[in-house]
Amino acid sequence: MKGYVHSIQSLGAVDGPGLRSVVFLQGCALRCAYCHNPDTWEIPRAEGKTQASWEEYTPQELVRKLLRFKPYYGTDGGVTLSGGEPLLQADFTAEVFRLLKENGIHTALDTAGQIAGQKAEEVLKVTDLALVDLKFLTEEEYRAHTGGSRRRVAEFLELTRELRVPVWIRHVVVPGLTAFPDYLRQIKEQAEACENLEKIEWLPFHDLCKEKYERMGIPFPLADTPVMGEEEFGRLVDSL
Ligand code: SF4
Fold first, then answer.
1. Which of 5, 103, 111, 179 is deepest in the core (most CB within 10 A)?
2. Is 73 left (phi over 0), alpha (psi -120 to 50) or beta?
3. Residue nearest to atom 3 of ligand 1 (CA)
4. CA–centroid distance, residue 82 to ligand 1 (Å)
5. In ligand 1, which atom is closest to the CA atom of 84?
6. E strand or H helix at 197
7. What element of type H or E holds 109?
8. What is the DSSP string of 125-151?
9. 8-state DSSP, 104
10. CATH no. of 3-238
């Protein structure tokens, strides 16, 4: 079995608890307006290799590499599989998580939650924490700004509940789209309705990816969206 890996961040502190290695898998079917990883979109095999580049790993090869960082994970940290969309490579993700857990390493799945069938179930059975973004409140908005389905996120969250996988809801706060107190309060309410919710994280929209889009010749839908200052963002989040 081979997996397609866009890149590996050896140690980071923002994608789950503690110090973690973050593996960005290649391929995503969504097109979120604020995505800062358009270079992970291209799906290996289905589209052929055009602009992006990735490396192939067997689960054993990847885990061998990650085990080098195990001493840094401490008691809270571990490994996060992100993307792209890790559930598009569900068999690979499940096997990597299984091997990590065999080695006593905490596993976090950073997903848009668009897949909720048997494949997702196999992954969630070996997942210690799911990081999920509700993104938008309605099906229409979700479809318009991501190309995906809000209903599928609800189905995925239901699966995490059934399998008792703790969830962090992470929400990118985008000026002009979601950065309104009432809107965010409703996101918060929906998040709090998940009985397996452990935490809500608010993430500020940033446009550091502009150059990446330019280099790739892809229009960035939010190129003219202003970035919120740290103070303004802090005030908004504190008011929720
Ligand atoms: S799901 Fe993630 S990787 Fe895919 S388009 Fe959205 S933000 Fe980008």
1. 111
2. alpha
3. 84
4. 10
5. 3
6. strand 197-204
7. strand 106-111
8. TT-SEEEE----SSHHHHHHHHSS-HH
9. T
10. 3.20.20.70
Enumerate the H helices of 109-229 as residue ranges. 118-124, 139-146, 150-162, 181-192, 210-216
Instruction: Please name the residue that has the structure tokens 């973690």.
Output: 20
Find the radius of gyration of the CA atoms of the chain: 17
For the stretch 38-67, pLDDT in tens is: 999 999 875 555 555 799 999 999 999 999
SS3 28: coil
The Cα–Cα gap between 89 and 70 comes to 24
Q: What is the three-class DSSP state of 219? A: coil
Give residue 28 CA to ligand 1 midpoint distance, Å: 6
**Hey, CA dihedral for 211, 217, 223, 228, is it positive or negative?**
negative
**Nearest to 189, CA basis, from 154, 240, 138, 153:** 240
pLDDT of residue 101: 98
